[in-house]
Write a structure and sequence with these properties.
By secondary structure, the chain is α/β, with parallel strands linked by helices. Helix content is 43%, strand content 13%. It contains 15 helices and 13 strands. Strands 3-2-1-4-5-6-7 form a seven-stranded parallel β-sheet, with helices on both faces. Helix 4 packs parallel to helix 7. The radius of gyration is 21 Å and the shape is globular. The C terminus is likely disordered.
């Protein structure tokens, strides 16, 4: 069994699935170590993982909340640019701190979040095997489909040319991250980073199920679609006013834990659903005080945090930002969804939801009251959305994503058995 270190990015949407993987590998007998900034220490220890600090100087306690609040006020291109800046700074911290932390922890393998482009360099510097995991949509660039930041669908020559142009643009926008990593790779005597060789040659494991991928996607050897990495036992208990549920069909509303401060969006959603036979449960994701939101049309339940898995299980649909975790949790419960993508990979999630016929997607800039109302009514009243979501639920259950991913990582790190001796 291996002693496996985890390098992810310090945001909840990546912590929840990667910590679920770490716990599942620990249950298989591996020793797992989770490296994180001080703001993540309580969460990491709270789910029973071995926490090792990195980023104490770059990200002192309280830093993550300030960054999250800033991102929560942005959307679209501005949010994406801020994300690039944040990931560049995070890469620099990983390159500075992770090698020594990993040596001190005695890890002999690394699991690296795919968007943590510095992680592979750390593994190569240490001379240990590593696997990439995609907690969000995969960022592998392929002209068969658009980069995950775009909501496009379609095939044919024009689509491929458009996708190639978008791939080039994403490469340029990610330039500061790549330049930061390449400077350190050069100091360490490592080859420059290239998109086609940037990810592990042992295995790349994505929580996106194959059933939700766009058609025609070409993936490299060793890439595996699995299914959601959900570990209910690792979720903290959260109070919720269950007594306020009044028997109407329930809609769970969340704009995630990062893009959750767009207060006007919650008001649009509430107004769009007012008058429908639907009760809303709105989670602010920790990004605001329910009292500060004020009264909303239809008197929805508004909480700072919600026991998300439990509420979704009771819901007729979800209305969300298109974060992959919330979307997969919805589909794993057979609930269709209305997606209002804000930034990053959320437009790509919305495109996949629409292609699979398990919901509707409206870019946040176009999410007016009439458009949201029409989408919610369509998903509620057309039984085909629920039928396809239930079919997707069955496929997700059959894929058994968390166990399948643990199997793949275990196989990647376990040495092949030696050939049996030739006994004559």
């Amino acid at each position: 069994m291996a002693r496996i270190g985890f390098l992810s990015v310090p945001v909840p949407g990546h912590f929840y699935p990667t910590s679920a993987l770490a716990r599942r590998l620990a249950a298989r007998g591996h020793e797992t170590v989770y490296f994180g900034v001080p703001d993540l220490e309580a969460r990491i220890r709270g789910v029973g993982l071995d926490y090792r600090p990195i980023g104490r100087d770059s990200y002192p306690l309280g830093s993550m909340r300030a960054l999250d609040e800033k991102l929560g006020r942005l959307k679209g291109a501005a949010a994406f640019r801020f994300t690039i800046q944040r990931m560049t700074n995070n890469a620099r911290m990983i390159l500075d701190d992770a090698p020594a932390a990993a040596r001190e922890a005695g890890v002999d393998a690394l699991v690296v979040d795919q968007v943590q482009l510095a992680g592979g360099a750390v593994a190569e510097r240490l001379g240990v095997p590593y696997v990439h995991v995609a907690a969000a949509l995969p960022i592998n660039l392929d002209p068969s489909v658009p980069p995950c930041q775009f909501p496009w669908r379609g095939s044919g020559l024009a689509a491929r040319l458009r996708n190639r142009a978008a791939n080039w643009l994403i490469g340029r926008l990610a330039g500061p991250i790549i330049a930061t990593v390449d400077r350190r790779r050069a100091e360490w005597g490592l080859a420059p980073l290239r998109w086609d060789t940037a990810f592990s040659q042992l295995a790349q494991v994505a929580q996106l199920p194959a059933a939700l991928e766009l058609p025609g996607r070409v993936v490299p050897p060793g890439f595996h679609h699995t299914g959601p990495w959900i570990d209910p036992a690792s979720r903290a208990e959260v109070d919720f006013p269950w007594n306020r549920l009044d028997g109407r069909p329930l809609a769970f509303v969340s704009m995630g834990t990062l893009q959750n401060q767009v207060a006007t969006t919650f008001r649009v959603i509430a107004e769009a659903c007012s008058g429908l036979d639907l009760q809303l449960a709105i989670s602010l994701g920790g990004g605001g005080d329910p009292k500060a939101i004020g009264e909303l049309p239809g008197d929805p339940i508004v909480v700072g945090f919600a026991p998300q898995l439990e509420v979704i299980r009771r819901s007729a649909l979800t209305i969300c930002h298109g974060g992959l975790n919330t979307t997969l949790e919805s589909l794993a419960s057979g609930a269709p969804t209305v997606v209002l993508p804000v930034t990053n990979d959320q437009p790509g999630v919305g495109a996949r939801v629409e292609h699979a016929g398990v919901g509707r997607s409206i870019p946040i800039a176009r999410a007016t009251v009439p458009r949201v109302r029409e989408a919610v009514r369509a998903v509620l009243e057309d039984p085909s959305y629920r039928e396809r979501a239930v079919a997707m639920q069955a496929r997700i259950a059959a894929a058994d994503g968390l166990n399948r991913s643990a199997d793949l990582i275990h196989a990647a790190f376990e040495p092949a058995p030696s050939p049996a001796a030739d006994v004559r």
